[in-house]
Prior knowledge:
Shape: elongated
Largest sheet: 7 strands, mixed
Subunit structure: Homodimer.
Keywords: Disulfide bond, FAD, Flavoprotein, NAD, NADP, Oxidoreductase, Redox-active center
Number of strands: 19
Strand content: 25-35%
Bound molecules: flavin-adenine dinucleotide
Organism: Solimonas marina
Cofactor: FAD
Distance between the termini: 17 Å
Order of helices and strands: EHEEEHEEEEEEHEHEHEEEEEEEH
Binding site for FAD: 3-18, 265-275
Amino acid sequence: PFEVLVVGGGPAGAAAAIYAARKGIRTGVAAERFGGQVLDTMAIENFISVQATEGPKLGAALEAHVKDYDVDLMNLQRAEKLIAGKDLIEIQFANGGSLKAKTVVLSTGARWRNMNVPGEQEYRNKGVTFCPHCDGPLFKGKRVAVIGGGNSGVEAAIDLAGIVKHVTLLEFDSKLRADDVLQRKLHSLPNVDVITSAQTTEVLGDGQQVGALTYKDRVSGESRKVELEGVFVQIGLLPNTEWLKDSGVTLSPRGEIEIDIRGQTSLPGVFAAGDVTTVPYKQIVIAMGEGSKAALSAFDHLIRTSAP
Ligand code: FAD
């Protein structure tokens, strides 16, 4: 069996694998798609000490760094079940295989909920984006929309209002769902318009860049157009934890793995890190720090529980 088996190969999983391997213990990492979400983006400008990089480049660097160590890297492996036994934890995979380990680090990440409207995929990274902390500065002096009036949408609109020329916040429901204090702040800003009962219907552009979006006014039924250069979609981040239902790992009401400050989950020997957990602020540097921390906690668990 592995001493540490990491499930998920994004920034959190890569960091966990490296930190575990550096302790000289038997380490494996199994991932559905090694690299994770960074493979879906281009410009990355907030990976501290690297002024600018690109997603695929960072993904390749993660893989090269892991391969510097004695790590069993198993790509294209989709975990489907976690079974906590008396001494070992078993992970079963979609291909029928299974692996056993003394400790595991869960780092299966998350995915942004899409609007599923025409133009959204076509203009991804050409104006359609999901991450205000990442891409806000790219829209300096431009007009943007934020889709979604929950806490993340309203926080994004407040954040962006300080950077961009104008923000239009579109909410499907008849009212915003964000906390009152955020709504008050939002309404105090001069360069933000809020439109409720608005169903986004299409993202338009010239083939290269976003130029507008259309929405249906759900009260009048009319279709309207907003001219802009950017669309921030903030309608939910879904943790990849469906496979952990019934495993005994406690999930939050949003489906995120609950962890303590050491990355420990509700099951002994099972640690978790990165976007899949309750950790606030889903970012690359944070996922890497969390992955490192979870691996060190797994090592600490091993030296306390393994026979000498
Ligand atoms: P992920 O990167 O989501 O990795 C999860 C891993 O688990 C993947 O290998 C996946 O294949 C695997 N996996 C999932 N389910 C299973 C399963 N059942 N079995 C096995 N493996 C599984 N952050 C920044 O800091 N700066 C940026 O500029 C930035 N830009 C972004 C742009 C886009 C378009 C997106 C989508 C995200 C961006 N982010 C950015 C956020 C950043 O990518 C994430 O915070 C980070 O990748 C989280 O790392 P992670 O390892 O926790 O999860």
